[in-house]
Amino acid sequence: AQSVTQLGSHVSVSEGALVLLRCNYSSSVPPYLFWYVQYPNQGLQLLLKYTSAATLVKGINGFEAEFKKSETSFHLTKPSAHMSDAAEYFCAVSEIGYTNAGKSTFGDGTTLTVKP
Amino acid sequence: DGGITQSPKYLFRKEGQNVTLSCEQNLNHDAMYWYRQDPGQGLRLIYYSQIVNDFQKGDIAEGYSVSREKKESFPLTVTSAQKNPTAFYLCASSSYGSYNEQFFGPGTRLTVL
To answer: Are the C-beta atoms of residues B91 and B34 closer than 8 Å to each other?
Structure first.
């Protein structure tokens, strides 16, 4: 079974400050991990993904995440927050079969607020 | 442009009525998914389909039904048996070999009065 825990349902930072959103996962097989972003009343959009290549993954809009197997973590960071980063962020873990697309388990989400 | 469309964006129904939410994709993806989103609860999987004419229950399938007669279409029916149907519904798709990277539609907000 797979699961995801996002620590902190709400995170608030000042514009220009470091963004750190935390995600811990549990998976019985090597995981594939994702971060998605959701703006109000919209669908989710992929930010970045880890698929067992490089442990430091770079995504869109200046975000990156580091896979740490020993800590079962996949935290999302951005060096300098922008007002447009205000949104809800979801961490997800997927397990795939050999003959199908599999399915994902999502965390409960973290709402990021950016203060001017 | 390839993508997923959901219609309508907003839907209002009276209690006790069945309602069907549309989801269409032109990405040629094999798998499709329906999620329900409530504030503070993330995304919960309702049903998913890996192939045409086959689908599996997710974590909260009670009160919902689906069909997958065509690869590009995966409609969701919210039945009168669903006790609390007011929510935001998201449809997604993914392809084999993509590690289950999911592409999402814009969502349908259903309000039952």
So the answer is: yes
Q: What are A44-92's pLDDT values in tens digits? A: 999 999 987 788 999 999 999 999 999 999 999 999 999 999 999 999 9
Which residues are registered as beta bridge partners of A105? A93
Nearest to residue B39, comparing CAs of B6, B87, B104, B76?
B87
Given this model, what pLDDT does residue B100 score? 81
Q: How far is B46 from chain A (nearest CA, A)?
A: 12
Chain A residue numbers with beta carbons less than 8 Å from the beta carbon of B101 are: 34, 46, 49
Q: Which of B90, B111, B88, B80 lies closest to B32 in space, CA to CA?
A: B90
Under DSSP, the state recorded for A102 is: -
Residue A52: predicted pLDDT? 79
